[in-house]
């Protein structure tokens, strides 16, 4: 593995982390969906680069799935869903953008420290890619935690899943069957969540998950 | 020795001569992108000349500070702009061309500008100064973080050495990518460009830079405007010097590399100006109270880059 291949792989994985931060920063619905599409595009570039570097043709399939499904189909579907739900207003975040970003940095630091120590004797390209992928996953989780709006929670979940794919491609020997099944299970999850969202809206007149908390009762 | 001094002098004159041209170029291109004809590229020179000829009007309450601040601002900015390597590395004064020095010079020019804004005691000046300070509390740490990232990668804070290092050991690095984006955000905010401040309007409640210099006229205003143009040129040269340092002349390499260096420098400036204008026309100005978040993200990116470098040197 020559130096340039390693650097480019790092660059693309670092780009994923950067776009995850852009997701955290973005507080408008359509902007969020556009950034999510960008996230998927960077993911597919990263996977395609790994396919090229590792000479693994099945990764090209993963890259194609990423670009078609996650950069085009899901954002378009989410956009239509947002318009139908009428929630294209500002998203409120818990605790403001600044503290959320700081928490994000803390999570990146955590994943770096954990990964670089836990996999100290692994292949360097896999190790640092895994560290970056773990940060993408944790940032997706953070996004799901900090947002009230159910649609942005979905975007957080999807970006988390992008992080999983990134981790899977960095490690060699992940069979194609697993990747395809992950991709389709996410699609199924997306459909289920979509149906669920409309049910939530019907029931509570809002997609703010805070409204659901009030109905839980007895836990105050 | 004499030749070295001549080249250094040429650099000082070059930045001063090119700064209004760059500003005029961005204005013209922006008008063209908005489908207006726009002023000629040389309009900024004419404006400066007109201002110099006019009488300087001072407020009754203006102190000596108000009268002297423009020159302090201008000289600090000019020195900083002349220190950044533009067309050649290893110039006579390049031992002083340290990133931290450049940041400090810009910081002191900002300090005088904020003082001058408050000196006369008008409401606009005070608002402008307070906002400028609010932004700078985030922009300056971000700049320092960027300096740290670049210094950790290149092993030096001296701009000439950084440029040489980047040419010789050019690699793609995550941390440098983060630093580049952070530096662009800081540059946009420091030069009062569109997402943070609007350079084209003069009377708007959200203005920052224009609010501070509202009381200036005549030659004082000319000097301040020239300093603002120099600052834009400085940030572009800085980005060019750190991230696209190709084409610069090496020390004592003869006449032809110097000519090539100047030519590539002009091309870099033109490309930078065009990209700046393209970005500005495609984005709306944000609310003043959104701007700290925007700048905070620059600080965060610089922080992240430093962090990555501390964890593993291969980022």
TrEMBL record, chain A:
Cell compartments where the protein resides: Cell membrane
Domain of life (superkingdom): Bacteria
Keywords: Cell membrane, Membrane, Transmembrane, Transmembrane helix
Recorded topology in the membrane: Multi-pass membrane protein
Membrane-spanning ranges: 6-25, 32-52, 58-78, 99-118, 130-147, 154-174, 180-198
GO cellular component terms given for this protein: plasma membrane
UniProt cross-references to PANTHER family, sorted A to Z: HYDROGENASE-4 COMPONENT E
Protein name: Hydrogenase-4 component E
Native source organism of the sequence: Siculibacillus lacustris
Highest classification ranks of the organism: Bacteria, Pseudomonadati, Pseudomonadota, Alphaproteobacteria, Hyphomicrobiales
